[in-house]
Amino acid sequence: VKVLLTGGSGFIAAHIVDILLEHGFDTVVTVRSEEKGKRILEAHANTPKEKLSYVVVKDVAQVGAFDEAVKSSPPFDYVLHTASPFHFNVQDPVKDFLDPAIKGTTGILKAIKAHAPSVKRVVITSSFAAIVNADNHPKVYSEENWNPVTWEEAVDHSKVYRASKTFAEKAAWDFVAKEKPNFDIATINPPLVFGPVVHYLNSLEAINTSNQRVRNIIQGQMKEQIAPSGVYLWVDVRDVALAHVRAIEIEKAGGQRFFVTAGYFSNKDVVEIIRQSHPELESKLPPSDSPSDLPANIYKIDNTRSQEVLGLKYRQLKETISDTVDSLLAVGA
Ligand code: NDP
């Protein structure tokens, strides 16, 4: 059984590769350059090339970008689409975020419909960003909720990332409704993802966005003051990766969104876990009487579908943060 995984060089995708190989799938990843592809193969030096290979797709926003990548012999059975920009260095909101997120998603769906009739399901990495209503939280968050962001608001630099995920996911569901392709889709909607780094990382400067706060804490950047948490929901990268693979393995996952979250956290919780798990880092940490900013009356969350349909059992924050710190220390934090 053969899978195409886009954005193979990413933080989450690297864990998906590991689980796909463990579960016996033949895996082809897309990357933006030969160099990134070669690094992935080097990290899996003992994996035979018929089990793992790469194709270069330079710019996912280009018309027809995936037309060649989706053709394969033997043909693909499933596609996992993770490639999408996630950072806060906004220069041009349309070119840097909206185009790659939205056109990347519709582009791969069109390419599959036109050139890869064997594909049965496409799993798309969406986000809690496509669920959250930051100005007016509902009582309970679940797959029922959609970010109400408008096109006019989308170019606002502080909103563009969340808008890119919202419009990309909407475009995918619209595509399936209108085009009625041979495949169905499922989306995985995680909030902030923490966890060990297994992708190529030459320096902690280049750490993926969602692990940045853990790096900042262990480098002493919050020693004087803990930065505002900003978001309060999290999930472990290994659980997110497993959710993607289960979403192709489990028939009834088709046609559904999955809100995958382990629960609440604050930066203060992360600090206290590190104080326990890595006492040698004490001198970098803020004082233990620093307050937590987790609101007392925070919205509730309902992740039942992910547990019942995908069978996820979520890792706890303690394990995740401790493993994340170990992996950052190994890179040289
Ligand atoms: P990374 O930045 O590590 O991975 C992003 C991946 O997308 C990389 O492979 C990157 O390629 C690729 N990519 C980004 N922009 C483009 C582009 N314009 N054209 C082609 N490829 C591109 O982040 P994550 O692993 O965290 O993100 C993976 C997915 O998960 C994204 O869809 C993100 O929105 C989603 N997500 C992440 C969350 C998190 O907290 N980490 C939470 C919710 C959703 P390259 O390496 O070449 O830059």
Summarize the model shown.
36% of the residues lie in helices and 14% in strands.
Keywords:
NAD(P)_dehydrat-like, 333 residues, globular, single chain, Rossmann fold, binds NADPH dihydro-nicotinamide-adenine-dinucleotide phosphate, alpha/beta, seven-stranded parallel β-sheet
CATH class descriptor name: Alpha Beta
Give, in spatial order, the strands making up the sheet with the most strands: 3-2-1-4-5-7-10
CATH topology: Rossmann fold
How far the N terminus sits from the C terminus, by CA atoms, comes to: 39 Å
Shape: globular
The unique ligands bound to this protein are:
NADPH dihydro-nicotinamide-adenine-dinucleotide phosphate
Name of the CATH architecture: 3-Layer(aba) Sandwich
Helix share, percent = 25-40%
- Count the domains: 1
Strand content: 5-15%
Rg value: 19 Å
CATH homologous superfamily name? NAD(P)-binding Rossmann-like Domain
Coarse structural class: alpha/beta
Summed over residues and divided by their number, the pLDDT gives a mean of 97
The helix/strand series, from N terminus to C terminus, equals EHEHEEHEEHHEEHEHEEHEHH
Low-confidence stretches: none
InterPro entries: Epimerase_deHydtase, NAD(P)-bd_dom_sf, NAD(P)_dehydrat-like
GO molecular function: oxidoreductase activity, acting on the CH-OH group of donors, NAD or NADP as acceptor
Protein name: NAD-dependent epimerase/dehydratase domain-containing protein
Keywords: Oxidoreductase
Report on the architecture of this protein.
The protein is of the alpha/beta class and 333 residues long. It has one domain (2-194, 234-261, 301-316): Rossmann fold, CATH 3.40.50. It is built from ten helices and twelve strands. A seven-stranded parallel β-sheet has the order 3-2-1-4-5-7-10, with helices on both faces. Strand 8 (192-194), helix 6 (212-218) and strand 9 form a beta-alpha-beta unit. The termini are far apart. The relative contact order is 0.13. NADPH dihydro-nicotinamide-adenine-dinucleotide phosphate binds at residues 7, 9-13, 32, 36, 59-60, 82-86, 100, 125, 127, 165, 190, 192-193, 208, 210.
